[in-house]
Amino acid sequence: MQSAGQIIFDKKLSLGEELVVIGANNENLLLWNLRKGGAVTISDSGARLFRARVTAIGKTSSALLVFEDTGFKKNILRVTLVQALPEKERMELIIQKTTELGVNRIIPFKSEKSTTIEERDLKQKKSNRWKDMALKAAKQSRRPDIPEITPYCAFKEAISCCDKKSLKIILKQGSGVMSLKEFLKNTLPLAKEKSEAAILVGPEGGLSEEEVKEAEKAGFTGVSLGSGILRTETAAIIGVGIMQYELND
User: Fold this and answer.
1) What does residue 148 show for φ and ψ, rounded to 5 degrees?
2) Complete edge-to-edge strand list for the sheet that includes strand 61-73
3) Whole-number Å distance between alpha carbons of 211 and 217
4) Alpha carbon of residue 185 to chain centroid
């Protein structure tokens, strides 16, 4: 599946090559809101990532000049962050940092112990800027795609949005919970075969027992990030970072 903003050429690319951009590639290029002279990350048939400069841009066709081989390839694993809505500006921090770390989709949801989007936006409306924040962070980190920020939803809807075949974990605290390190060590071969992973992060104070049961019934496995008590934004950032490091080459 081609992600938003992803520009993929069905051939091997080389430095100095001039490219004509049409169709879905041009539609995705326009999502970056670039001007002539701006740069974007693109990929070739071998999943190699290149930097290209916009030499012309239009509604139906554009032109790019390949100027850098990054030496990296596209991530194989797509990561979804299922995030309970935190208070204050922590959601903005989560979007920014997990975008830099390569998250592909963020699903903000209302849990029993979390704030509501109405309470947050009453003081300072920022939820309407989340997609712009993701775009800005994607540009800054030079990633080849723009993460999807889904509409705020209820808990059950959020966990149902995750692919049944994906690797699904829920971050938990307390004794007797398997560490994320141990979980990945035991499941790494299987995990690398899957193309999707989902990380469920609760609010300050955690998810309710009923919500945890619902998540586990939906296929989420409880794992721990250690003995420390982490803020929800810290847990989200660390969780996404570890998954990307361990499961993407």
Assistant:
1) -85, 130
2) 18-22, 61-73, 48-56, 39-43
3) 10
4) 22
Q: What are phi and psi of 205, to 5 degrees?
A: 95, -10
SS (H, E, C) 25-51: HHHHHHHCCCCCCCEEEEECCCCEEEE
Tell me the two tokens of residue 118. 């109405």
Torsion of CA 203, 206, 208, 209, to 10 degrees: 150
pLDDT tens, position by position, 188-218: 666 666 678 899 999 888 888 999 999 999 9
* pTM confidence score: 0.91
CA 186 distance to own-chain centroid: 24
Which one-letter DSSP state was computed for residue 16? T
**Are 57 and 36 a contacting pair, CB within 8 Å?**
yes
195 membership: H or E segment, kind and range: none
Backbone angles phi, psi at 65, to 5 degrees: -120, 120
